[in-house]
Design a protein that fits this description.
alpha/beta; 5-stranded mixed beta sheet; two-stranded antiparallel ribbon; 25% strand; globular
Length: 168
């Protein structure tokens, strides 16, 4: 389990992030149109998995906006924004913000993504939500970068995640 904080208060997750250099675990998540998306669907593209507790918090919304801004210029790269929010909430936010360069995906049905990636928060007021993290995959689905943000209220290191794309 990972030890992180929320505003300086200790909380834990169900496990650890997958290791750099390993194959990313497969997943099935729900798209905005309620169809399913799996890791295999993105084979051949580099992926930035922007994972966060809820789109309805300031830091989470900021991470989606910032990755959307940067995603337009990324070659052969897709940014997947993943939370346990419903697809309706994710669609509402992206529609209201005019965000078209990221794909939102929901783990609301069964939390299998959060379990496979060790990200479900198991204590504190955000219990059941996903921990704020960024995972970068190369075009073959290998993990090349991970960050589990130490305090959930903080933003991820956007530049480190995006710079890792240049090295693979």
């Amino acid at each position: 389990m990972a030890n992180i904080t929320l505003g300086g208060n200790p909380i834990t997750t169900i496990g650890e992030l997958p290791a750099i250099g390993t194959k990313a675990p497969d997943f099935t998540l729900v798209k905005g149109d309620l169809s399913k998306a799996s890791l295999a669907e993105f084979k051949g593209s580099k992926l930035v998995l922007n994972i966060f507790p809820s789109i309805d918090t300031g830091t989470c919304a900021t991470s989606v906006r910032k990755f959307n801004e940067k995603a337009a210029s990324l070659e052969n790269t897709k940014v997947l924004c993943i939370s346990r929010d419903t697809p309706f909430a994710l669609n509402r936010f992206c529609g209201a913000e005019g965000l078209a360069d990221v794909m939102t995906l929901s783990d609301h049905k069964d939390g299998s993504f959060g379990r496979s990636y060790g990200l479900i928060i198991t204590s504190g007021p955000l219990e059941g939500f996903l921990s704020r993290s960024v995972i970068v995959l190369d075009a073959e689905g290998n993990i090349t970068y991970t960050e589990q943000v130490p305090d959930i209220k903080d933003e991820p290191d956007y530049e480190a995640a995006l710079n890792s794309l240049e090295n693979n």
